Amino acid sequence: MSTPTHSPISNSRRGVIHTWSRTLIPTTKDAPGDAESPSHRLLARAGYIRRLTAGVYDYLPLATRVLRKISDIIREEMDSAGGSELLMPILIPMELFAETGRAEAYGPLLFQMDDRHGRRTALGPTQEEVVTELMRGTVSSYKSLPTTLYQIHTKFRDEFRPRAGLLRCREFIMKDAYSFHMNVEGKGGLNDAYDAMYKGYVNIFTRCGLDFSVVEAESGPIGGSASHEFMVNCESGEDTILKCPVSGYAANAEKCEIGERGAPSKGYFGGEASGALEEVHTPGCPGIEDVCKFMKVKASNMLKTVVFQSEDGASWVVAVVRGDHDVNEGKVRDAAGFKVKLADAAQARAKGFEIGFVSPRAAAGKAGVRLLVDKDAAVSFDDAKGKPMFWVTGADKKDHHLKHFNWGRDAAEAVPVATVTDVRNAMAGDPSPRAKGAALVAQRGIEVGHIFKLGTKYSDAMGFAIMDETQQRKSVIMGCYGIGVSRTMAACVEMSHDDDGIRWPLPIAPYHVIITPMKVEPESRAMQAACELSGALAAAGFDVLIDDRDERPGVKFKDADLIGIPIRLTLGDKSLAEDSVEFKLRSAPAGTGGFVKIAEVVRKCLEAAR
């Protein structure tokens, strides 16, 4: 990845000087009772955020400064990538969502309301419909394209269970950008804008001081084709990233490909049965875990059969994976050749599928039904153990399962119409799709950015077509590029903290330097030195916080560690007697600070900022 040359400190910009007593930093020893994640606990304890209601937070002065610094970095890189900033309304008429069908896609996640005239509106989770409506009303010729528009604004999502503070909330701050093109390839095409945004995102998160990975991803409810996520690497991350340690390939679990899996020695579906087929009564056991516990079998010996249907309900897909694997809806969609959704239970039962107890053989003899079997599930002989594969599956009858299921014997009518393919989520240890002999490894991450090639999904749905060079009307091609600004702040804390508090990367820290005078009387030498030092540091571009509270040293030191300012300068009698300050980096181990001459402080801070 390229490393931008931007320095977080510039003497062309004068830093700010604030005193603790004149701002609002309500630190506390105790975290909120509902705080589950490190970022939630620490941001609340350190006085950055305060809960107003479930999933909605006040951003206090420290948080506002961090958010502004992240936003400023984003603006600089978006402008460099050719973007123009605007602001779009938060309230979105529901008829726009009706044009694209996303009212159904988002469902209860949309905050909806009626105004006094009965007009239905929603609080925007994203702005694809709004920006498309804007462009179709103002652009009528190819000469106005390409263009890229972006905003940094508040968004809303009615989460059923908000959690982890700013990581999964109902109101959040986001940067969203949209590009518009007449072509995909060539100068001014979507690919050019996508590549520029990719580079800009790498620069943004590098400049923010984040440890991150770029991974291939599914598009989700946004839609579109190519897609990449930008994930902050941390053990507490909510998403799984799979990487090839040889090639560098990375993808999230929903998108990750699986390398070549060797075919079984007796071929797919080949081999004798492990025993006589036996029907077992399994009352109240529709789930894999329930069946495994009841029948005392391993999940890897179960066949998990999931029924999908096309969006119009006319076509059906039965996907089969091993019980310890998860069906991948995106791979099912790609293998089927059409968009799919989990089958409606009532419609599925009417079609002959007993949801919760479906076996692979249920796909046989039904019109409009495709059977997709994952490679690990399509075996009847266990090569590792040298004996027939023991399978348990549903019995196509409520509260019943089949023991000793064999593909060739018990699904003879289904096997000829089955397609053996990759329809499951990848896992650590699976073969790498990019390096023969290498295995995928897993790590955790938090998504902070996502870019998409939307194509014509929204312009087709909303009738946004304009004249091209040949005077033919063509649907405009779009790209979409989002960054969770408040989420980035929280993800940074997840990535960088210790037992004492937050450890901010210097570029996005609320202040670069905290000055802690042991005596705070205005006439004291410590306070006079603090004023002189803060002025010199501000002139060099540093943002400075002076802890002028009349508190015990221990309280000040604990609070300084808690709020996470990168550089701490302590002014006490001992150091001042030597015309020095105690210099300590927040990222350094305890007890590693040392004295620095006052005349050398600015230079020392500049060295630390590099």
Structure description:
It is a single chain. With 610 residues, the protein is an alpha+beta fold. It has three domains: 17-21 and 36-256 and 444-494, BirA Bifunctional Protein, domain 2, CATH 3.30.930.10; 278-421, Alpha-Beta Complex (YbaK protein); 511-609, Rossmann fold, CATH 3.40.50.800. Helices cover 25% and strands 27% of the residues. It contains 16 helices and 34 strands. Strands 4, 8, 9, 10, 11, 12, 13, 24 and 27 form a nine-stranded mixed beta sheet that branches. A six-stranded mixed beta sheet has the order 1-31-30-32-33-34, with helices on both faces. Helix 13 links the parallel strand 30 and strand 31. Helix 1 (38-45) packs across helix 12 (485-495) and helix 2 crosses helix 12 (485-495). The chain is globular. It starts with 16 loop residues before the first strand and ends with a helix.
Can you give keywords for this protein?
alpha+beta, 610 residues, 3 domains, 25% helix, BirA Bifunctional Protein, domain 2, YbaK protein, Rossmann fold, nine-stranded mixed beta sheet, 34 strands
